[in-house]
Amino acid sequence: MTGSRQSEAIGRIPGVPTLLPGDDGYDEARKVWNAMIDERPVAIVQCRNTEDVAVAVRSAAAAGVPVSVRGGGHNIAGSAVRDRALMVDLSGMRKVSVDPGKRVARVEGGAILADLDRACQTHGLAVPAGVVSDTGVGGLTLGGGFGWLARLHGLSVDNLLAVEGVLADGSHFRASADDAPDLFWALRGGGGNFGVATAFEFRLHPVGPEILFGPTVFALEDAGGVMRAWADFMERAPRACTVWADFATAPTAPFLADEVHGEKALILMQSWAGDPGEGEAILSPLTNHPAALGGFVARRPYVEAQSFLDQTYAWGARNYWGATNYASISDDLIREVVDVTATLPTSESDILFIAHGGAIDDVPVDATAYPHRNVRFMSSQGARWRDPSDDTRMVEWVKHCSARFARHCLDGAYVNFISEREGRENDAYATNRQRLAEIKTRYDPSNLFRINQNVAPAGTAAD
């Protein structure tokens, strides 16, 4: 069925706000964070509640078109929007309710991290989540979800108590340890393969109101030794400590000398979620490293730390990432990374190394659908640019980086870091893929929710 005929088959859904191609607001509503994505859904349903979602899903199924789901619209692969699909837009569903006594937050499916962080910090509480405040809670969580608190309190999925939403047949569901536990297992890392998640319930932890947070910058010529020191530091660091290593272009910032601005550099992003005084002593080998060119590690409100990188990853640019897992950081890998950093294609491109371990490893690999529990480090080698004519060059640069790192890495890749729109299912779900396919067969046998790193129903040709 062609796109125009699909639009006619769906039409305007009675009682539910619907945008069709040509309508005012349609082009704005179909935009997502990654400017490489320019797709035209047959309809955009701007849902206000779970019943609107159910009506939209039933309409898509009846018209024979797949469903994409927009929460924050921040996914690198642009899975919120697709040509000839129906977009279920949850961006109007952003309510966050906090029960400080029970330490539980209820979060609607369109909420972004800023909504969640602000609501929880009112009570001195937080959910382990991502590191850019306009990231959608839903997409982040369904893929796993990690950030500055993950080593201390686990992934977002490790703190998930329940999910509510709509299945492929339009029925409502609640999944938890007691309700549909198979579906609950799959939702914790299986992405958007199983339905539309319209609400999440999270366990909360005391955090802040201030944490120790900020960058320390090193010249690229010193980066090899500093990277070795960082990797060794993170192997024994307390769980309250998270430090990520970013090979990037030094910012124009007052804590750096003018001659450092715009130079290739290693930036250690440091976070300490315990007592700030204790954290200053723990982080001292990095913040006071003799090769440091400058830094801005300081006590700051948790919500400020959570938005510190917002401008670095702001909307409007074209983006392509590679994603790689490691059991350790070898000296050979460090030499590769320093060498490749000299070729960063734009001032917004970077090679980011993320330290895991701690509470993430406490959870068995088969306890949730998220499979990357044996990973101590990840890298995301990313190009960021503005001119569409540079697309091929930028993508090839990322692929070249990934190929150079490949001999040092583990199998697999974090699903939320995969730029490809399909075909990386084994990397994303690893040993859990077969179980996910069996659960998919029960809850979405027609594969209505296939705009993702897709888990096809068991026994189908794509399985």
Description:
By secondary structure, the chain is α+β, with helices and mostly antiparallel strands. The protein has three domains: 3-89, Uridine Diphospho-n-acetylenolpyruvylglucosamine Reductase, domain 2, CATH 3.30.43; 96-206, 2-Layer Sandwich (Uridine Diphospho-n-acetylenolpyruvylglucosamine Reductase, domain 3), CATH 3.30.465; 210-417, Vanillyl-alcohol Oxidase, Chain A, domain 3 (3-Layer(aba) Sandwich), CATH 3.40.462. The protein is built from 14 helices and 19 strands. The protein has helices at residues 3-10, 26-29, 50-63, 113-121, 137-143, 150-153, 181-187, 223-236, 276-287, 302-306, 331-341, 391-405, 425-429, 433-443, and strands at residues 18-19, 43-46, 67-70, 86-89, 96-99, 104-108, 125-126, 160-166, 172-176, 196-203, 205-206, 210-219, 241-249, 264-272, 292-295, 298-301, 318-326, 350-355, 377-385. The strands form four sheets. Strands 12, 13, 14, 15, 16, 17, 18 and 19 form an eight-stranded antiparallel beta sheet that branches. A five-stranded antiparallel beta sheet has the order 5-6-10-8-9. Strands 1-2-4-3 form a four-stranded mixed beta sheet, with helices on one face. Strand 5 and strand 6 form a beta hairpin. It is globular and about 65 Å long. The two termini are 24 Å apart. The model has no long low-confidence stretch (mean pLDDT 94).
Question: Helices, strands, pairings?
Answer:
Elements: H1 3-10, E1 18-19, H2 26-29, E2 43-46, H3 50-63, E3 67-70, E4 86-89, E5 96-99, E6 104-108, H4 113-121, E7 125-126, H5 137-143, H6 150-153, E8 160-166, E9 172-176, H7 181-187, E10 196-203, E11 205-206, E12 210-219, H8 223-236, E13 241-249, E14 264-272, H9 276-287, E15 292-295, E16 298-301, H10 302-306, E17 318-326, H11 331-341, E18 350-355, E19 377-385, H12 391-405, H13 425-429, H14 433-443
Parallel strand pairs: 2-4, 3-4
Antiparallel strand pairs: 1-2, 5-6, 6-10, 7-11, 8-9, 8-10, 12-14, 12-15, 12-16, 13-14, 13-18, 17-19, 18-19
Helix pairs in contact: 8-11
